[in-house]
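Recall the central idea of this unit: under ordinary conditions, the amino acid sequence of a chain determines the structure it adopts. In this exercise we apply that idea directly, starting from the sequence alone.
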Amino acid sequence: MTTPNKTPPGADPKQLERTGTVREIGSQAVWSLSSCKPGFGVDQLRDDNLETYWQSDGSQPHLVNIQFRRKTTVKTLCIYADYKSDESYTPSKISVRVGNNFHNLQEIREKRCDSLSRAMI
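Accordingly, the structure predicted from this sequence is:
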């Protein structure tokens, strides 16, 4: 999501989108996963249903790769994780990396997630 102003932590991204504070741009990107169990892939990750989710199926690190077709400024990244429902599948750390291709990514932000329910990164 992009935003012209600083978004408060814990804000509801859907409400912010309805008020025009942010704009969802994920549909402009190509999404891929390092691995996933059948029926728990990109479609479930992006479907806006809190009852569905991505579930990895492989060794770590577990990666979500979001590639835009052209250079795109992203000011806010919203991630929902429900630690209370299933701490074994909730990430302990989220790393945001940017670059021109997969081989030159540089970490720009890291977030520790011990009891995260909604994060604005």
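The chain has a mean pLDDT of 83.
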